[in-house]
Amino acid sequence: MTKKWFRIGMLGIFIFSLALRFWGLERFNTLVFDEVYFAKFGNNYLTHTPFFNAHPPLSQYMIGIGIWIGSHIPFWHDTVNGLTGSMRSPWTYRWFNALTGSFIPLVVAAIAYQLSYRRSFALLAGLFTACDGIFLVESRYALSNIYIVIFGLLGHWFLLLALDNQNRRRSFWLVFAGIAFGASVGTKWNGLWFLSGAYLIWIVAWVIQGMYSFANSKLFFTSPSLQEAEFRSQNSGVRIQESEFRSQNSGVSTYSQPFSPSPLSESPLQNLTQLNIFQILFYLGIIPAFIYSIIWIPHLQLDKTYGFIAVHEQILKFHLHLGGNSSDVHPYCAAWYKWPLMTRPMAYYYQTAESITEALPVMGPPLPAGAGKVIYDVHAMGNPFLWWFGVAAMLFLAGMLIAKIAIYWVKEKRFLVSGTLSVDTWIALYLVINYAANLAPWVEVTRCVFIYHYMCAVIFVFLAIAWFVDQCLRSYYQQLRAVGVTITFIIIAAFIFWMPIYLGLPLSPNDYKLRMWFNSWI
Question: How far, in Å, CA of 239 to CA of 199, rounded?
């Protein structure tokens, strides 16, 4: 794929994302789901109204900035309400989220490209992210999860750019990585998992190098004949990898060409061990902590009830007392193990009407069951096939890593890993580690949690299925290329099919039921 067509493709994905997020943005002249908190909180900063916030304040600052800018734009004010505490158009407290969410597919594509330098992989990653439902829904309302994700992803992209540069340019990107990670945590505390993923992949890189260096150091204590045998074994391993790289042209392979100066055969992740512990602690420790701290200053100046330490104690107390993770606490509570298969999505908005021309109430319950002929439903639900295929791809990557390690151990007859990991092995390590880092911490959480808490982890699922499809499409075998095309078509078709419940478009009861495949989805 040429650079020109790659740029055209990315521009098309951005326009597609932008159009879907802004189309009918003011459709519901009310507060949808947690807009009852976040839109109000954003407006409170403009009206200087003190309030307690159960999360760090950055996303509410962003929503407040959007309200301020939107209120000075002389159009899109046909409908207004006073639910935020001031007379505002729904467009004013939603548009900034819509704009921000439109960039997420581009950032995901940038990460994919930086991991592999493959434009096809990057384009697929951006396309699949643009075809997800929960990211579309979260972007269209004044909610906070979009900001956790985009700042966390920017942190990873800046880290990869830093690894791809040296000296001052590396420090430049590392500073921005630290700022982005701090901003992610400054949105919600679970932004820490993005940062923990960066730490874990760095630790794994050092462990791999340490094991390989330790094994090689033993050569100094062996006889010359054994050293020569070891040298021949290593050269044989390199030749095997080169052969496996060439075989990629004739089929899907989990191996790539060994690292060389050519950017097409390397990944910035191989440079992780160039970062020492002092750089990590400063750029990805001190800087994020500093950014997180200063984010609180405007809020603490507005609400002087609690100081910096006390407000964190109150937030922790709030979350610890939210109750158990069961439907008795909230009908949409969904434990972490329900997220990957999307067994319990949630309705952010549900309203019925007699006809599509009937005005929806600003506040109030829907019509009695069976009375409404038109259903408006905004469902926080991912693209089912994107999520299911993505989980399968993530399991495939994890299995690939285990198989590669096991094969190498059997071959070498000792506990060792190869010192020349392929590009696709690095990608697999990166995706599996970051997926686990963003999902595993929720295993021990006992409070009520919801499917939107999975957004930070599922973004790596999108990258995993994009990698798999890219391998299929680049294969020599027609059957594998057909698999890649089929998966892509199904994901796009599924997005179109479920789009009405992402956008809250009017549906007949039959059309609504057609999209609710399982009772647990309702």
Answer: 32
pLDDT in tens, 423-442: 999 999 999 999 999 999 99
pLDDT of 443 higher than 60: yes
The amino acid at residue 161 is L
Q: Is the pLDDT of residue 88 over 90?
A: yes
As a whole number of angstroms, the distance between CA 178 and CA 184 comes to 10
Residue 298: CA atoms inside 13 Å, Cβ hemisphere, count?
A: 19
β-pair partners for 378: 349
Q: Could you read off the pLDDT of 463-498 as tens digits, one per residue? A: 999 999 999 999 999 999 999 999 999 999 999 999
Structure tokens at 94: 């939603």
Judged on CB neighbours under 10 Å (0-12, 13-18, 19+), 217 is: exposed
Q: Taking residues 312-331, what's their average pLDDT?
A: 86
Two structure tokens written together for 476: 């020599």
Identity of the amino acid at 385:
F
DSSP 8-state assignment for residue 359: P
Single pTM value for the model:
0.89
Sign of CA dihedral 470, 472, 474, 479: negative
- 3-class DSSP assignment, residue 118: coil
Q: Which residue in 373, 379, 378 sits closest to 356, CA to CA?
A: 373
The length of the chain, given as a count of residues: 522
Q: Under a CB-based contact definition with an 8 Å cutoff, are residues 100 and 18 in contact? A: no
Strands (E), 244-397: 346-353, 374-380
3-state secondary structure 215-278: HHHHHHHCCHHHHHHHHHHHHHHHHHHHHHHHHHHHCCCCCCCCCCCCHHHCCHHHHHHHCCHH
Residue 374 burial by CB count (10 A; 0-12/13-18/19+): exposed, middle or buried?
A: buried
DSSP code of residue 271 = G
Identity of the amino acid at 129:
T
The yes-or-no verdict on residue 309 having pLDDT over 60 is yes
